[in-house]
Amino acid sequence: MPQAIPTFKNFGIGSDARSLKDPEVSPEGTQPPLELSDAEKSHNQQLIEQYADALYDASAQEILEWAHEHVQGKLAVTLSMENTVLAELAADYLPNADFLFLDTGYHFPETLTVAEQVKQRYPQELITAKPLLSTVEQDATYGKDLFASNPTACCRMRKVEPLASFMGPYVGWITGLRRADSPLRANTPALDIDANGRLKISPLVTWSLKETQQFIEDKDLIIHPLTLAGYPSIGCAPCTAKVEEGQDPRSGRWAGFNKTECGLHT
C-alpha cells in the first residue's frame, strides 16, 4: 500500500471543508482533450467502417499487423503494468509505437518497479503521464483521500484527463482490454474510435485470463508479483483488493462502490 501522505501547511491540508473545491470541477490548468485534424478523423473513421467487423474476432497478431500496415500516424501503447503482454507484442509488431504509462501517484510500489523493468527491457520510449496535481495537492484542494469519497472524480483527474492531455502526438492507442474481464467488456470491439476521433485498438479482446498467463510464461515476461498473490486486476493501491478464486477478476477494483471502470474505456 502507498505510504502515508505527509502534511504540508502551505497546501492547506486540514483546512476548513468550506474552503475545499468541488471535485466535479477539474483543477485550473487542466487541458481539454486534444482532438485530431479533420483529415485524420476522417481517415480513422474510414478504417472503422472498412475493417472493424472483420477484425472483431481476429487474433492479436492479425490486429497488430493490420495496425502496422493501415494506421497513418503514430500509436501509443497504453500499459497499466499489471502485465507486460502488450509491451511484448508491440515490440514485435509495432516497433515505432511509444509506450504510455499513467502514473497516478497511488500505484503499488511493485507496479512502479514493473514500469522501470519495462523501460530497461524494451527499446520503445516509455512516456510517463502524470496528473496535474500531486496527491498532496489534490488532498489540499478537494479533501483528503478523494478516492474514498468520490473515486470517479479521482479517476477522472488522475487517469482520464492526464491520458487526454498526453495523446496529442498520437492518432490512436493500443489497449489491453479483454472481453473476459467483466460483463461490461463482453462486447468490446477490437477496433473502435474514441470521443476525440482516435483509433482505439484492442488486440487482446478474445484472450482469457488463462491464455494471458500462458503467454506470460511462454515468453518469460516480467511478472507483477501481486498477480501471484490474489490480485488478477491491479489499479491504484487504495482502490484494489484481493479477489477470491472464481470471482470476476475486476471485482477487487473499487470494492464497496458501484464502480468497475476508471473512465478510460466508458
3D structure, described in words:
By secondary structure, the protein is α/β, with parallel strands linked by helices. The protein starts with 37 loop residues before the first helix and ends in a 48-residue tail after the last helix. The N terminus is likely disordered.
* Radius of gyration based on Cα positions: 19 Å
Q: Give the CATH architecture.
A: 3-Layer(aba) Sandwich
Q: How far is it from the N-terminal to the C-terminal residue, by CA? A: 27 Å
Main sheet properties: 6 strands, mixed
Q: How much strand content do the residues show?
A: 5-15%
The global form is globular
Work out the number of β strands.
6
What is the oligomeric state here?
Answer: single chain
User: CATH H level: which superfamily?
Assistant: HUPs
Give me the strand/helix succession: HHEHEHEHHHEEEH
Low-confidence stretches: 1-15
